[in-house]
Amino acid sequence: MAMTFILNRILIHFGFPPITWTDDGWLGKDKIFHFALHFAIVLVGGFALPWLAFGRTHWLLVAFACLVSIAFGFVWEMYDSARGPGASWKDLIWNNLGMILAVIAGVLLLSVIY
Predict the structure, then answer these.
(1) pLDDT tens digits for the chain (114 residues)?
(2) 2-17 exposure pattern, b = at least 16 Cβ within 10 A, e = fewer
(3) What share of the chain is helix, strand, coil (3-state, %, to 5)?
(4) Which of 1, 14, 100, 102 has a CB 3.0–4.6 Å from the CB of 39, allowing a cystine?
(5) Which of 109, 112, 60, 69 is nearest to 91 (CA)?
(6) 49, 64 in Cβ contact below 8 A?
(7) Residue 110, SS3?
(8) Within a 10 A sphere around the Cβ of 91, how many other Cβ atoms?
(9) Which among 50, 71, 72, 68 is positioned nearest to 59, based on CA atoms?
(10) Alpha carbon distance 4, 55 (integer Å)
(11) Is 14 helix (H, G, I), strand (E, B) or coil?
(12) pTM summary value
């Protein structure tokens, strides 16, 4: 709760609307979309494209894909807060689950390839 208060104060200071949080369920249809999108961002951006382009991948590219995934998820939730039903902590958690499982899947795939 304190984190939301601090973040709202910062947003209001810079002229943005405060974050409104929604109380949605853990297993909605949009949760599958959140998981799959962030899984794809990290797996394709961090593992598949570098491997196809250079014949290998690098942990920095995987880290960059994870940062893109986190930033995109956060910005999308801020958009939902401002224009949609409200931001959701559960959406952010599903985003991160997709990202983490993509890293695990990528490492396992690379261990099979090499």
Answers:
(1) 566 667 767 777 777 777 676 777 788 788 899 999 999 999 988 888 887 777 777 788 888 899 999 999 988 888 888 887 878 888 889 999 999 999 999 888 877 876
(2) eeeeeebeebeeeeee
(3) 75, 0, 20
(4) 102
(5) 69
(6) no
(7) helix
(8) 21
(9) 50
(10) 44
(11) coil
(12) 0.78
Residue count of the chain, please give it: 114
For the chain, the structural domain boundaries read 22-113
Q: Which residue has the tokens 């920095």?
A: 60
- H helices within 14-86, ranges in order? 29-42, 49-54, 59-83
Question: Which two tokens mark 79?
Answer: 């958009």
Task: List residues bridging with 87 in a β-sheet.
Answer: 21
The residues, any chain, with a CB within 8 Å of residue 101's CB and separated by 6 or more, are 39
